[in-house]
Each structure stands twice: as C-alpha cells, then as structure tokens.
Amino acid sequence: MGEGRRGSRFGAAFVGLWLVAGIFEGAGACDRRDDARGGAPPPPPPAASAARDTCADGGGQDTDPISAPFVPRAAGGYCLDPQGEPKTYGEQGKLSMDDVCTTAFDGECEVYKRFDLDRVVVIRYVDGSGGPNSVEVNLSRFKTADGAYAMFTKRVVADGDPARATVKPLAAGAAGAASSSNAYVWRGRYLVELTFVTEDTKMTPEAMARANEQSTGAIAKDIGARLPGTPDLPPAAAVLPSASRLPLGVAYHPKNALGLTSIGPVAVGYYRDGDKRWRDVAIVRSSADEAKEALRAFRMKPGSTPVKGVGDEAVQVVVQEAPDRAKAEYVVARKGTLVAAVGDEELVLDPATPNGALAALKLTRDEKLAKLAALLK
Which of 29, 212, 299, 343 has the fewest Cβ atoms nearer than 10 Å? Predict the structure, then answer.
C-alpha cells in the first residue's frame, strides 16, 4: 500500500536526484585580479536571479480550458512552471490515450483503463524560491466516480496491508492520502496524483518529508477544494462502519472482488481491534432482486451453508481469492438492497501458524454474526 508498497506511479517515486556541476577554468585567477584592483565582487550569475524570480509574476498558466478551473497558479510557495505547458491526453486532449501509457504513466496503465480512464492532464509546479525542487501532477478523469474512487483506493491500499501503510490520511478533496514524497486526492470523477521531485543530493529523508508536506500537501488541498463533484463516498463504501477501521482501510472494486466476477461495485473495509483482524464487505444494489443475485454468487460457492436468523437470507462461505492466497471464512447476508459480509483477514492467516495462535487473530463465528447484524442496520 502507498509508497512503501509499490512506489510512485510516476516511476521509482519520481524522486530523481541529479547533480549538475560546472567547472569554470581560471575563475580563481579572475578573483585574485579583482582583489588586487580593490574592485567589488562580481554580481550573482543572471541564472540565479532568474531562478529567484520564478513565481514573481504569479507563475505559469494552465492553458487547458477543462482543467484550468481546478488548477491554482500558485500554492505552498510553488507556482506553475512559467516555461512549461500542460500535456493533455484522451478526450479533448492533444495526445491520445495510447500516448498515456508511453509518455505519462510508468506501469499499471491498463489498470487505469480498466477503471474507465478517459482524460489525463500533466502539469508541473516549480519552487518559487528558486530551489531545486518541483511537484509533478497528474490530473486523471474517469467516466464514473466509481472508477476514480476505485483507482484512488488502488493507489493507497493496492493488495497490501493497511496496517503497514506508509501513507497517511490527508484532508483534501473527498478523500486524500500522503506519504513522504507523494499525495493523492479523489473527488467525483477525478483522481489527482502528486509527486515531489528534488535535485538536491544532500536532502535527507526527513527534510524531504517536510518539503513534500509544505509543497505537495498545499497544492493537493488547493486542487481538492476546486474539483467538481460531490464529496460523498460511493454507496457501498459509505455503508462500511468507521469504528475500528484502519486509516485509509478501504478497497473499492467496481466489478470483481473476493474471487467472484460481476458482483461489483464492492467496498471492502479493513479492521483491527487489539490482536484481532477482520474485513467488512458491502454491496449496495438498486433493487432487492439485484441484491439477491449478488448473494446468489456467494451461495453458489462450493461448501456454502445457509445461516438462519440474519437479514432476509444469509450463508456461510469460504473465500479463497487465488490458489496462492489464504482461505478466509465469511458470513454473508442480504437485507433489502444491501448485501453485507464479515470475514477473516487473510493477510494474517499464515498457514504455517499453529491453529491456536491463529484463533487469537480471528473473530469467532458469533462475533462475526454480531458484527454482520450491526452492519445490516
């Protein structure tokens, strides 16, 4: 999850470090001649003065009419690069969506497309003080808010354990997260990904984290406040209880989840209480008949057994999302248009761990049923 799990989408955290050194022959001799004449030291190079004035005129402009309303010219002491211009891909863009995979995204391009990505704008902010730092921003638009939110949780949670996350919640947009060199913002159909880049080879990780928070964090909050769309979570994600849920502990799947196909959208919450870990699952349908079909997918799994007295109908099933993954026991129930489930946290189910030790990490069946009944309310 987050930066520690899979790195930045812009490639190797996009925190490139380059050293540009210039060797000027005879500089020492010139200084000595100036000193001998008693002259004043030479003025600073023009390039240095220009760097300090980078944002003096307010910064560059986002010339893309679609994204311009969401993009501040300056924030956090940084401004749009006056020497640059936005790169636009996809719908009403100068470049095609195929170009996104080769010039904008470093890996996982097909994941974005699977979530119905339809437009990308790439912009760059530079340090107004003339420092060797910048912030790269990808503003991605999806066909639906579900697709954008799913990609946000994919960036933040991925397939890792939220309990070991390197990203932390960020108050930006409808949902936000930040690490020591990245920030992510979701709202409506938009996902914003920001990466802090420095050319300072002597910058410590602690200094980078501070600089990232001051620059990337400020830009993320400003853009997040401007993005269109409601701040409300998708219905399935909104159903998940917040008590005992790990920070940023939600994964959202538009179509397939838990080893089942065509049951989405599905929201999966990651929970912890002491040593015990578990997952809550929520599926919200527009009609009871559609919810029945979603529950039927669980009932058709081999070994499923009916459970009485919970919701309108309920089953107990064993879920194994892939042959190399642990088996997790779930209780699943439907009430009206809601299908909910409570199950084991497979990430702590190491087959090599003795059963006695595993029991301390899992909810009992009665505990699952109690949480499921509360979730159905």
Answer: 29
Q: How many structural domains comprise the chain? A: 2
Do the domain assignments include residue 146? yes
CA distance readout (Å), 61 to 131, 160, 183, 214, 223: 20, 38, 22, 21, 15
pLDDT in tens, 167-190: 999 999 999 999 999 999 999 999
Fill in the DSSP letter of residue 103. Answer: I
- Over the stretch 31-55, which tens digit does the pLDDT of each residue have? 433 443 344 445 544 444 444 578 9
Q: Could you give phi then psi for residue 150, rounded to 5 degrees? A: -60, -40
Same domain, 138 and 103: yes
**Contact (CB, 8 A) for 184 and 178:** yes
The CA distance from 227 to 155, in Å, is: 19
DSSP state of 95: B
Whole-angstrom distance, CA of residue 150 vs CA of residue 144: 10
Q: In this structure, is residue 47 part of a structural domain?
A: yes
Q: For the CA atoms of 336, 341, 342, 347, what is the dihedral angle to 10 degrees? A: -160
- Asked if residue 135 belongs to a domain, the reply is yes
Q: Quick one: 329 and 191 in the same domain?
A: no
Q: Is 24 part of any domain?
A: no
d(CA 93, CA 66): 10
Q: What six digits make up the tokens of 323?
A: 């042959």
Q: Which two tokens stand for residue 166?
A: 């390197």
Q: Is 248 helix (H, G, I), strand (E, B) or coil?
A: strand
- For the entire predicted model, the pTM comes to 0.84
Query: Domain end: 167, 199, 226, which one?
Result: 226
- Contact between 135 and 145 under an 8 Å Cβ cutoff? The reply is no
162 and 257 inside one domain: no
